[in-house]
Structure formats: C-alpha cells, structure tokens
Amino acid sequence: MKEKLESILENAKEDIKNSNDENDMNLIKSKYMGKTSEFTSIMKSIGILSAEEKKSVGILTNEFRTTFNNLFDEKLNAIKLEKLNKKLESERIDITLPGKVVKTGSLHPLTHIRETLEDLFVSMGYDVVEGPEVETDVNCFEKLNIPKNHPARDMQDTFYITDEMLLRTQTSSVQVRTMLANKDKTPIKMVCPGKVYRRDDDDATHSHQFMQMEGLVVDKNISLADLKGTLLELARTLLGKNTNIRFRPSYFGFTEPSYEVDVTCFKCGGKGCPLCKNIGWIEILGSGMVHPNVLRMCGYDPEVYTGFAFGVGLERLAMFKYGITDLRVFYQNDVRTLDNFNRKEM
Ligand code: DAH
Fold this sequence. Notes:
The structure is a single chain. By secondary structure, the chain is an alpha+beta fold. The protein is built from 12 helices and 9 strands. It is rod-shaped, with a radius of gyration of 42 Å.
C-alpha cells in the first residue's frame, strides 16, 4: 500500500510540476482526489481492513493527502501570483502623466451678485419674490404715484405693448403686487430681483435690458434709520467692511423723501481715483420712504403704516466691483470672458 501511494504521489508531483494554469490544476485535483481517483478507491477499501491495518493505512493516506494538498496549494498559489503579476504589469498606470482636465462652468457675475444679495436679505428675514416682466401700466407707474402724462415717466423710456401693457421698466412694480397681495398684512419684507427693459440704444453704458433688485419693507414704525442700516449692510456685504454710504436727496414718484445712495469708492477708499472720477463716492441705488399715496393705493393706511424701498441696478454693481467698463460683456456671454470672473474674489 505504501509503495502504491508513493507511486501515485510521484505521478502527482510530476503532473503538478508540469501544470501551467488553473485549468490544469483543476484536472489534477480531480485526477488524484476526485471520486474516480485511485486514492478515493483506496479510501473506500479501508472499511474492509482489520483494525490494525486500518490504523497504518489511515496514517499513510493522511500523509498522502497532506503532502498532495501542500504541493497542490503551493503550485496553485504560484500560478495565481504569476497571473496577477502579469495583469498588474499589463495594466500599469503612469501616475505622473497629466490628468484629463474636467471643464467646469462658472457663475455669471450677475448671478453671483444676485445670489449674494438674496442670501443677505434672506438672512435678515426677507422673502425673495418674482413678478412678471410683461406688466400693466397700473402696476409699473400709476399705483407708484406716477399717473399717465406725469413728467417722471420721461425718466424711463418704455416699451409699450398696448396702451395698458408694457415691459416693466423697474422692479418697483413688484412692490405694488406684493402690497396688493398682502392686503393690509404686515410686516412686508421682500426683495425682488429681475430683468427690466427701457428703450435705449445699446452701447458700453446703456442696454435695453438690465437687472434690478427691488427691496420693500412695510410695517408700523419703519423709519429712515431702518433704511440706512439696511443699505449699509448691503453695501458692506457686497463691497467690503470698510465701505460707507451717504444719502443725497433725489426724486422718485413713489418715495417721499427720496434719496440716491452713494458708497465710498472701494478702489481708493474715498480718496479719489479714476474709478470714482475723483469724487471718492459712487452712486449705486435709489431709495426712500414709501410715498403715502402708494401705501394708500395699495391698501395700506399711511396713518398707521410706513415703509422704505430701494432699487439697485445689478450690472452697475458688477461693473464697479469687477472693473468692467463695457455693459455688453454681461450679455455677449463669451465664455472666455465670463470664466475670468470665476477667479476673482466675489
Ligand atoms: N425704480 C427706480 C429706478 O428704476 C429705483 C428705485 C428708486 C427703486 C427708489 C425704489 C426706490 O424702490 O424707492 O430708477
């Protein structure tokens, strides 16, 4: 029996040595350990042996199995390792090669300014609302205390669609809509960013379409101090902590008193430079206390409620902030130009 097992083992060794892949190894396994193998029939025959023989044959078969399995596993591992090495070699990656550049988009500078302002006002408890660009004459002018034929209409050359419908010239129309929709509920705190239209020939500083953001607060006891604090916050968020503001008296039909608001030039800090035309101040928006007539026409008793409003042109802000000298840049949408703003601190 011993010789028999030794000769089987010799054959197995030879086969294992000559095997080159996992397939060969599978065949070897079934040849020497499978159901029809010589070894299995020896194992089956153990049952009929005497107890003495069982013991000695048992030892021999155990030895055989252990030796075979060791040889087998060693070879199989070697085959697997070689296969893995070949695979790694063929899939070798040169990590020093330059990577593929993934092209990313960038926010349009106007979008960035709009979102910065929206975030600021939302943080102060304002709603962001929208209104239609095709508007009624009533909402865009009449309820804003600018009746038909009022000279203030000349300030905003309008695209009329019919006698009563127009492309809104100012987001102030959304003040009217908001007050009418709220009846006499207060407080109203809203900003409305959006496009407006005026009959202008496009050039470096004029555009027939541009963007404004309107702000409106109506409640009891709203004063000019609230307006001032709010606009100071707006200016500092957008242009830096050291920015200051000043109010200059002005005229808008829907506010009384009305102001134009200037900020200290953020390039020279107010000393005077080409950007601010040596004045040290740059005008950025119009504002004022909501006119009692507007409150009344929109359903609020001016004896009880007061409010402030402001309207800011987003292109103007962006032009100063990014040093853009031609308004058309915003609408030509040349990706090469717009990409540049991505690298600037917003
Ligand atoms: N609507 C004005 C404009 O387009 C800007 C403005 C001025 C808005 C004063 C206001 C305001 O809300 O109170 O020129």
